[in-house]
């Protein structure tokens, strides 16, 4: 009868039995793989949990050490408060104790100090009788009878502790050792309270509380408490291949289905442990449901194959066609993934992929080229190590919270290169969610802005120099007026020598004119200084009043210049020099537009405004609706409607060739964008133009530096000898005559070499030195260095006619050295010299200005 079975049915039956056998085998392999996967997941979870616990232990030790770094002396109460917090926070910490470095000669002093705290039986048990000192336990937490017995115990008594303590001292890193102070198994972490390798002599000079050892005991049983909940799994915790603890699996006499074991290492640096995992699964413990179902399904398939044998051929064609379609779709998606992968690999921007906790999982080659990190050095680290921060920008935590909330973030940030330098980058971060809308990854793109910022800085300086050229023309006009007035007053004083009152009046006017000239020069130097943009809180009212004084030099006298500044103080965060440049550019453009006006007028207004939501929506670059509103309006030729959309583009200009670079308004626009403000323009042809600047207001008080009014009182000398050094003959004679007139004995020198000769001859008599900075043969800085080698406390007064900030490095060499600008008043010079000679608090600032 078997042989009479139709061949298709027979083949279907045989095929069904083969399928049953195959499915049973696959189900068995699946069962084994599932158990392996479960075992690997358990190992990974326990490993990750212990890694976290080990990092927390090191973090707890660092938290305690910060207490000793912040204070020269730490008492037992302070130690108890901070240490008890760590013990309560981390259950795996058994005890924390502090051991100072004590020389044998200091043992009795430390013991007496502890006796005074109430520890009558405190005794230091030294490791040996050498002169190297010891590390006796002084403070301990928790403060219980069990642990009090360790007070005075020398950590160096135990050989394993000795090695760990010495490694911690020599490497300034956290080390660990297996604890045998008590009968319980534990791991002890050590951290030295100073950094670097120090000799015994160098250790002795450290303050007592800054020179010692912190120790922290870890209970390995508590570390593995979660393992007890996992059946069939045996875990042994090892330190240097020595078992600390284990959790035995439940024994069973049933036949064994599968057995797994694995040893992994966790932690690094100071705390490195090994875990040995062992798991056996018997047949009755395994989930055989799938195996049974596979066998039953195989038999069912055998029956079904017999039934569908006749239709298999036609169905196979349909399945083959569908398979080809699916394969084509897979190939298409694979090509897309390859394109995406190639795009990321060859992208010019640095691309980082992080998990939901901020751990870096991938960086592309451009990241290594821009940031300097190799993948093996940064993958697995937290993104916070890149040190993303900048003055006036959101910190990394705020950025991360924005991304975690499901929003993208884009902005300028300073990112840390591997060598420690900060690189300006444009950072874009976006979240990646799975099908359940759960955050799984975060992608970050860093665009290097270094070259762009160099170009922007050159453009800013180019525009600034263009404005300086305009300023110089106006200042030259004012200087000629001042010089004419000075010459007139000199003539009037000369012809009225018989009338002292008239002479004093004319000399007073001359002093006022020289003061105005000096102030104008200082403003020009400040405006032209090539500094990087530095945002600071400032009063816009005060800053505009000062800027308008300087700007008056570029506005022709035929133009009616009107200022309307509100009384309310408006505080903004901006760069002073850039704001001055903005005012100069807008006023210069207004002057150019007024050349053909009959009654030229420029009106500058400052007011406090609260912008409407519609305005904020139209200008998303504006950070706050509470703004300082600055407007500059003219009644000139206006701007053509077709040009309004182009005026902020670099190099766009409507002026004739040679009259403008086209950089002015683009720099204004960039500067306003940098401080998260907005700028708009209104213009009507032949009626005038108004620029509106909206700067975000802040609540922080402005840092306003203003020179206090200096007293005109001249402090007389008492016959002290002063060495005066200046290569300008007229200046040297004038200052010498002034100093002699107020009671000083003056020695003069024409340069640094001449001054050294004079000092060698009169070293015992010279009480102070007044020197120019820039001189032939030897300048003031080199003279200062050589004289300070001979007399470290010699009062030294530098005088210079250059920008004081460029020479500021000269005055930073030590005490009793002050830098002041030429010209200066006799009263300020007399007070400064008197205070320096008599070592009193100076009454003037170190950068003084005035008239002589």
Descriptive tags:
5-stranded antiparallel β-sheet; disordered C terminus; alpha+beta; 852 residues
Describe the structure.
The protein is an alpha+beta fold and 852 residues long. It contains 21 helices and 26 strands. A hairpin with a 5-residue loop joins strand 13 and strand 14 (439-448). The chain is flat, with a radius of gyration of 41 Å. It starts with 6 loop residues before the first helix and ends in a 15-residue tail after the last helix.
Structural class: alpha+beta
Strand content: 15-25%
Strand order of the largest sheet: 2-1-5-4-3
Q: Figure out the total of helices.
A: 21
Gross morphology is flat
Distance between the termini: 133 Å
pLDDT < 50 stretches: 205-209, 389-394, 702-710, 841-852
- C-alpha Rg, in Å? 41 Å
The tally of beta strands, per DSSP, is 26
Largest sheet: 5 strands, antiparallel
Give a short synopsis of this structure.
This protein is 42% helix and 22% strand.
Break the fold down into its secondary structure elements and pairings:
Layout: H1 7-70, H2 76-89, E1 93-100, H3 107-116, E2 139-141, H4 145-148, H5 159-171, E3 175-179, E4 186-192, H6 200-204, E5 212-218, H7 220-223, E6 233-239, E7 242-247, E8 256-268, E9 271-282, H8 289-345, E10 350-355, E11 360-363, H9 365-371, H10 375-378, H11 396-404, E12 409-416, E13 422-433, E14 439-448, H12 450-495, H13 500-528, E15 536-539, H14 540-551, E16 560-565, E17 571-574, H15 576-593, E18 601-610, H16 613-618, E19 626-634, H17 664-674, E20 678-684, E21 688-696, E22 721-725, H18 729-741, E23 745-749, H19 752-761, E24 766-772, H20 780-790, E25 796-800, E26 817-821, H21 826-837
Parallel strand pairs: 16-18, 22-23, 22-24, 24-25, 25-26
Antiparallel strand pairs: 1-2, 1-5, 3-4, 4-5, 6-7, 6-9, 8-9, 10-11, 10-14, 12-13, 13-14, 15-17, 18-19, 19-21, 20-21
